[in-house]
Amino acid sequence: MEGTNPVNKKLVAALSGGAALVVALTGCGGGGGESDKKANDWAKTVCDEVQPQLKKIQGANASIQAASDEQDSKKLQQTDSKAFKDISEAYAALGKAVQDAGPPPVDNGEKIQKQAVKELNSTSQAYKDLQTAVDKLDTSDKAKFAAGLNDIADQLNKLSSSGDQALKKLQEGKVGKAMAKQPGCQKPKGTSTASPS
To answer: Is the overall model pTM greater than 0.85, yes or no?
Structure first.
């Protein structure tokens, strides 16, 4: 019997889609432009908080990836549950960071900030719901467990394909450029084998 393996791989694929949301948040090093002190200060405030949360999300993704060949439903459930909990907490902390930083110094800053906070918080809640769903799965029945995981992977896919519009908005213009320059908003160097030259 196939067991939960193919489903777990689907979960991993869905999660890496979810990570796109975070990558959206981290910009990709925009080129110079006029340095705006207010924008830089705002970006630093947010980005200093972003880095530990990105690491937490990456760690959670890695733990689910590492368990993609796990045969024991109970262990798999525990791994997934903890990962969703970590990701949920990380998004909540990101929401708080954007909230605490105040509106970015741009037109409609307050509206942009509110939307981003709302989005980060609703993403946090969505992962919390996924954690609850994983915790409720019946691990004694492999087929049922696999079917339940499959549903969760589908929900994850929906989650990762929707909802980073406000974050993109947050990174437009000078604030986005300022964020891209902050080390805290750059993607953490994972456990990639490429050594920095």
So the answer is: no
